[in-house]
Design a protein that fits this description.
Blueprint: E1 2-8, H1 29-42, E2 51-58, H2 66-79, E3 82-92, H3 99-108, E4 112-118, H4 122-128, H5 134-146, E5 152-158, H6 165-177, E6 182-187, H7 195-201, H8 210-226, E7 230-233, E8 236-238, H9 245-251, E9 256-259, E10 264-266, E11 270-274, H10 278-291, E12 299-303, H11 306-318, E13 324-325, H12 326-333, H13 335-350, E14 354-358, E15 366-370, H14 372-375, H15 378-385
Parallel strand pairs: 1-2, 1-9, 2-3, 3-4, 4-5, 5-6
Antiparallel strand pairs: 6-8, 7-8, 10-11, 11-12, 13-15, 14-15
Amino acid sequence: MAGIYLHIPFCKRRCIYCNFYSTTGSNLTEDYVSALILELKLRRMEITEKINTIYLGGGTPSQLTAQQINKLITEIYSCFEVDQQAEITIEANPDDISEEWLDGIANSGVNRISLGIQTFNEKELTFLKRRHTGKQAINAVKTCQKHGFKNMSIDLIYGLPHQDLQDWQNNIDIALDLNIQHLSAYALIYEENTLLWRMKQKREVSEANDEYSLEMFETLIKKLTASGFEHYEISNFALPGFYSRHNSSYWQDIPYLGCGASAHSYDGNNRKYNKPNLSLYLEGINTWHQYGTPNVSFFETEHLSKCEKYNDRIITSLRTCWGLNLKKLEKDFGKDFLNYCLQMATPHFKNKTLQIIPNQTDHSQSILKLTQKGIFLSDGIMSDLLYIDEQI
């Protein structure tokens, strides 16, 4: 089964750390929704499988009205065969949550909400230039639950300047007290072309010590797993049965269609992505609709080489609790790639950061996985296993 991702780029204001494509041009939301509907129609033949997941990400999708969201989801059902049990997720900001909006999106079929909380701490929220308060974040989760949403996810960020371990533990405790089903947690990254990056360049802030960030990550793992959450991907935790099915498809090499400015698509062999430019996107979609031929100025297509697909498999598989299926790796890429992978993994076996275990559902197959120790060194381990050139 496949998934559909819709990128909603509108934000009231940009957070200091965010490098996702977004715009504050909210006067264009209706034009954008119309263009998304056209793109879904124009690309309906790119996905012939049944749709298992729909995900509205951003930006801030909760900047759309419930009526606009209903239009988009209705169009997806019109253009594609959607599974009756499809997971339909929308990202939202706490201060956008209202009872009327929740009623509207529930009637549209949305059954999972991912709230961008980041922190419940007032000083940290001010530093990040978030629009909500800690109290608003708590009330937003409770209001969603009151309206029948039983699959709630929240995002948190750790490793902020001046954030101490107690602050971080308090954030985790508040999240757990809210009886959520899923939590994503990310270390603060100083991405180029963000306000946070410029603040660092001016020495107004400094990055948290790596060892301190790792201690926060370790605390997160211990507290969540002790509360029954499963650590199913490096940055993601869920109660049993509540893994993000949409994001899991990215990590399991399942095709997906991405629509909207800056959205990416994958068909198993090629990546296609729309350029991160709202006016270019609107013009490109309308021209395609008018003349019947896509204007390549607003999107690009990349055919993946065998080496690139191997590297993608390494990165996505090792991030997850499912690990890398070695038999499937050999089947898809050949014995040379398998041997290369195992050769590069050898030092990590000795360091006890990688392990080979039997596949739980088929003991004739072996799985390459990070150990608990390896999770904390995952970036370096995955980098070592990548193939740089085309010699194989």
